[in-house]
Amino acid sequence: MNILQHLRRQFLQSLEGLDVDSSSLAGTVQPAQDPRFGDYQINAAMGLAKRWKEPPREVAAKLLERLELGELCEPPEIAGPGFINLRLRSDWIARRLVELADDPRLGVAPVADPATYVIDYSSPNVAKPMHVGHIRSTVIGDALYRILGYLGHRTIGDNHLGDWGTQFGMILYGYKHFRNEASFADDPVTELARLYQLVHRLIEYQKQKKSLPEWKRRLEELEARWAEPFDESAADKKQRKARRRLQQERDQLRATIERAEMSVQAVESDPEVASLLDNLPDLEAAVLRETALLHDGDPENRRLWESFMPHCKAALAKIYERLGVSFDYEYGESFYHDALPELVQKLIDLGVARESEGAICIFFDEFDTPMIVRKRDGAFLYATTDLATIDFRMKTWRPNVILYVVDHRQSEHFAKLFAAARKMGYTDVELVHVAFGTVLGEDGRPFKTRSGDAVGLESLLDEAVRRAYNVVATNDDAKPGGAELSDEERRHIAEVVGIGAIKYADLSHHRTSDYVFSYDQMLALEGNTATYLQYSYARIRSIFAKGELDPDAPVALDQWQWEAPIERELALQLLRFPEALEDVVADYTPHQLTGYLYELANRFHKFYQQCRVLQAESSQLRASRLLLCQLVGRTIARGLELLGIGVVERM
RNA sequence: GCGCCCAUAGCUCAGCUGGAUAGAGCAGCGGACUUCUAAUCCGCAGGUCGCAGGUUCGAAUCCUGCUGGGCGUGCCA
Prior knowledge:
- By secondary structure, the chain is α/β, with parallel strands linked by helices.
- It folds into four domains: 86 residues, Gyrase A, domain 2 (2-Layer Sandwich), CATH 3.30.1360.70; 185 residues, HUPs (Rossmann fold); 133 residues; 186 residues, Isoleucyl-tRNA Synthetase, Domain 1 (Orthogonal Bundle), CATH 1.10.730.
- Helices cover 56% and strands 8% of the residues.
- The chain contains 24 helices and 13 strands.
- The chain has a four-stranded antiparallel β-sheet with strand order 1-2-4-3, with helices on one face.
- α15 packs across α16.
- The radius of gyration is 30 Å and the shape is globular.
- The two termini are 33 Å apart.
């Protein structure tokens, strides 16, 4: 049962027959801001007072006359300017708690009206190893998938793999010209990744080599303009702004040139790479040709693509397994290839798209630039594929909602995509771009290695697990009764803790904001971290072990009893699990659940500090506290599971 | 140029469709292990919520302008 939802329903019902806009008033029922104001509060009276031209406290009193909260609440109080404070009756909490003991769903009732959600997440490029940039989409998408499913919705997880783009052209070119046969036979994925990196590097080299003279000319120009006399005090606002922009552009260009010169230098001084530079064709064009050949059904490229794919997918599967992430489908871009010409024709026939400058475009009133669905050279783009994907998903699953868990830089693309879909007639589906921010390094810049590459996901996980292992070992060695974990257990714990730390760090931040990635912070194992929650769980399991009790057997109890205020606070927090899940789903923000779990664990630790469980003064109190412990443990384990994070018995 | 996003304590972040005295965690200072794991708990200190207006009984939250930052912007994904 969702208490907040219940209170809102009761309140709205009590308003029937009154001249009020009840839809806007539901939100005035809220959790209390401060424990002194009770458990929940209704803030409707102040707003209504104005409309009714009556003093707010009198309005509050009138509302209370109609409100029937039965056995749920103590008599409500009117406070301050007209707040209505609600306090749950402790006997009601006690009854609910005993009911929870037998409820495998921890009070979360399946939704009355299940919807179908397609969730598009992770979507890496199969041609290159996953890196830090893929964490957020994968982890957030997986959490939403789990939570929506738990709430009773029909969920379809679809990993929209990038298996058809230019990156594959690079691999094809690299394989044909630079492959090391022995390495490929030995470990195809590593060799393909090497080839991708190599070709990518060479293309960058060519581009930079070509552009450098032009950039330098441009920089000289900017420097010259900068050197011109400029009187700050005499300039108007616009001139000052232009001046600053000039400086910015100059600095950026300087940095670009510096970086380019460094990487050109690096390529030329790398004996293995430098030897390839002679007689190198225009690689970018060559790669595009390979890509085009693949798309046009060239048997050789097709055969190679088909032989590469299983290896690439197996490598991805390995990392997904380690992360504990799964999908129902993995329809990559290639899956839609055959549908594209037809789709574009359909768009033209519908009058949605038209020819412009040789390309086929969809124009929108609300955007300056169109969405191009077929290039001048006849090739299709990811926008085309994305439209075909909507087409397919609508026909196949008839979803009510499609979620795209993709970083915020693509927001304009999705705005156009959704507008185009509506033009195609898909108006009865909710298309949502679940955008998220960038993972930053501790310098506040996007998280990169020193050489400027994206940090590989695998090495990220390894490092987190390595650090977690050290902490686990140190802590175990320091236990009063001596170490109690075998090395095998320590390794298992380190894996769960390390990976959990990374996922939790990501999920505990609001998805739309950029966040700073810091091993020290997420493995500090203090504060709002996965470890703190896992530790609470382990402590609970330890209590049951100490008392030689089965932690999973229902605690027999007729009447729940409490003594310290913290016990009631902890109990109430347990009852609010459904609210936390509802909050997550309302805006697709998993950090609402991490916040809830942190608060739960925090209350548990306070309780643990103040209250003896096994040595409680009476058997009834002991059973009551054991019930609390068991429910906290179950809620933490379930909550973490819904975030894709595991727990351990001991740590 | 245009569009989107952001600015909250020294640092990293919350603040739920406007609500009562803006909250955590780190870092700092001071306490609590003969007692179910001190990976914990308690206390102290720390904020003109970027700036200026406006709407409102009430604004960190909504509107306008400004400042500072990030991202995107016709044939990459």
